[in-house]
Specification:
- The chain is an alpha+beta fold and 113 residues long.
- Helices cover 39% and strands 26% of the residues.
- A five-stranded antiparallel sheet has the order 4-3-2-1-5, with helices on one face.
- The longest helix has 39 residues.
- Belongs to the YajC family.
């Protein structure tokens, strides 16, 4: 035979090569976790707490952009009653409440420095 068989050489540092291949993937996952996943979970937790603390008289903003005042909150039910105009009350799902608005105090409205 004129052609001798060629054998593949072993990669030097087999364990080190595996680490260098996995390191970028682990780094990307860590960045995604700290920049995307963790803040989103924190925001969801705060929103759940906000919804659980709803009470009568709170001014709320729904996901549809409607401002109203909570007139009735039923325990164990996902619906709350919101007054959006005088004598106009609608039932909305608790999850559609986007934010609870803080009342503006009399001193805060005119104070510009």
């Amino acid at each position: 035979m004129l052609i001798s068989p060629a054998y593949a050489q072993d990669a030097a540092g087999g364990g080190l090569a595996l680490i260098t291949q996995l390191a970028p993937l682990l780094l990307i996952f860590a960045v995604f976790y700290f920049l995307l996943i963790r803040p989103q979970q924190k925001k969801q937790k705060e929103h759940r707490e906000l919804l659980s603390k709803l009470k009568r008289g709170d001014r709320v903003l729904t996901a549809g952009g409607i401002l109203g005042k909570v007139t009735q909150v039923k325990d164990g039910v996902d619906e709350i009653e919101v007054e959006i105009a005088p004598n106009v009350r609608v039932s909305v799902l608790r999850q559609t409440i986007g934010d609870v608005l803080k009342p503006v105090g009399a001193n805060d409205a005119g104070a510009k420095t």
